Amino acid sequence: MRKTESNKAWLLVLPVFLLVAFSAIIPLMTVVNYSVQDIFGPGEAYWVGTEWFKEMLRSEDLRGAFVRQVIFSATILVIQIPLGIAIALAMPAKGWAASLSLVLVALPLLIPWNVVGTIWQIFARGDIGLGGWFVNDMMGIGYNYTADSLHAWITVVVMDIWHWTPLVVLLCYAGLRAIPDAFYQAAAIDGAGRWKVFRYIQLPKLRGVLLIAVLLRFMDSFMIYTEPFVLTGGGPGTATTFLSQQLVKIALGQFDLGPAAAYSIIYFLIILAASFVFYNIMVRVGRGDRA
């Protein structure tokens, strides 16, 4: 007997499509509409085509913010991924110590982003902050993140490492716990040392998890806004002004809706292209693991 197929199940998915259309597609189309017009006020819009896109691509401010953004994202990935693996390897595997360590590691992730910026704004101050006092008085370094560009940059990087490395740790810890004990037993029989166990068992099994961690941390770091804005306000000068802060400055500070819309589309396409590359790498790695 032939089975009859019913497509009524799509009706259950229809509300989701409508919600996505309302919350994502319609605002995106509005931004696209603004990006090709010059807005003077309600009902006063003039077609300019790709003029705003050309202006934004020629903008020195955008190029500077993009370079700072790429350097920042690359820096935190280079530091956080190895650090997260090392911490996950050092954490207990079983018992109450494992539960306690997971709770302690996850604590920074529970703190709101604006609170993180405020915490580090106070902590890193040289006059009242414990961190600033230690660096200045105990180490003898003239540290001042509000006046020195390098100090501000280092402070933002350290703050992000403190806040988001736990995410990498939790992902790596879950990946390590998913490795069957049979692999470790075989390695023990062969007399493999700790480095060889890591090199030939743990690291290959963590490839998929690490790619997810890299993708998540790249997207988060490339869209960072609240923490450095609260901590340094993008300064001193433009030392810690990233793409998101530059976008807010154009859209709200200068109220240039057309250029801001074009800027946001370029910003979106950069993140989309990078995420597409990471996704394809993850798919290829997954196929290799199954093979």
The CATH superfamily of the largest domain appears as MetI-like
Major sheet: order of its strands? 1-2
Give the uncertain stretches in residue-range form: none
Can you tell me the CATH topology of the largest domain? Answer: MetI-like fold
- Would you identify the CATH architecture of the largest domain? Orthogonal Bundle
Biggest β-sheet: count, sense, barrel? 2 strands, antiparallel
The number of domains: 2
**How many separate helices?**
13
Average residue-wise pLDDT: 86
Morphology call: globular
The CATH class of the largest domain, by name, is Mainly Alpha
**Order of helices and strands, N to C?**
HEEHHHHHHHHHHHH
Helical residue percent band:
over 70%
Topology, number of strands: 2
The class by helix and strand makeup works out as mainly alpha
Strand content: under 5%
Description:
- By secondary structure, the chain is mostly helical.
- The protein has a two-stranded antiparallel ribbon with strand order 1-2.
- It has helices at residues 10-35, 51-58, 60-90, 95-106, 113-123, 130-138, 149-177, 181-189, 194-205, 207-222, 226-231, 243-253, 257-290; strands at residues 37-41, 44-47.
- It starts with 9 loop residues before the first helix and ends with a helix.
- Strand 1 (37-41) and strand 2 form a beta hairpin.
- Helix content is 74%, strand content 3%.
- The longest helix is centred in the last third of the chain and has 34 residues, at 257-290.
What does the secondary structure layout of this molecule look like, with pairings?
Elements: H1 10-35, E1 37-41, E2 44-47, H2 51-58, H3 60-90, H4 95-106, H5 113-123, H6 130-138, H7 149-177, H8 181-189, H9 194-205, H10 207-222, H11 226-231, H12 243-253, H13 257-290
Helix pairs in contact: 1-13, 2-13, 3-7, 3-10, 7-10, 10-13, 12-13
